[in-house]
Amino acid sequence: MARHSKLQKQVLSLYRQFLRAGQHKPGFLPRVRDEFRQNARIPKTDVMHIEYLYRRAQRQLDQLKDVNTKQLGTFKKPKGQN
Known about the structure:
This protein is mostly helical. It has three helices and no strands. The mean pLDDT is 84.
């Protein structure tokens, strides 16, 4: 089995933190899984994009851990736009 890079280990750790933080908040786990699965298709060589998403996810995790958080907003492009 291939060894994971430092960034891959950080992303996996972040994923586990999200799963733990979202356990007691209804509707969060499916969203977390979908988001990570969608971003898993990003090429490993696109390090800048992965690091950007990692930093953004860290901020979202901090929001999720807040006891007052009931939902997280999303920004999506309309279909047909790239």
